[in-house]
Amino acid sequence: MKPQRTLFAYLWVSPVTVFGMFFALLAYAFGAKMKWRYGVLEVAGHTRTHWLNKLTTRYEAITLGHVILGRKHGVLKTYRSHEHVHVRQYERWGVLFPLLYVLASLLALLRGKHFYWDNVFEVEARKKSAD
What we know:
By secondary structure, this protein is of the alpha+beta class. It is 57% helix and 14% strand. The chain contains five helices and four strands; from the N terminus they run αββαββααα. A four-stranded mixed beta sheet has the order 1-2-4-3, sandwiched between helices. The termini are close together.
């Protein structure tokens, strides 16, 4: 799980990472803890970061470029490999990834499937994190 990330990978995704850093710094200001793991900033909530828990309430964590926001570090430990697949997806698709993710959800819905569970990016993340 220790990928070699290039400067290009960081730059290609940097606009989304900057957006994620906004939430990371806000969470940190309210007591969240930050950890650098495998070239990605992981941020986990604290009792005073209830808004972060609300942001990740439906799903335990969210990836924004090279930033992963989660409810707690224990949760991040459980979902780390899944979220790191999303980081690699960002590195593949760059700033287009959020749009492609939404389009994949819409396509799943149009096919009569679930917007999250049948999203091709989530299917890939579940499969690769289980390997």
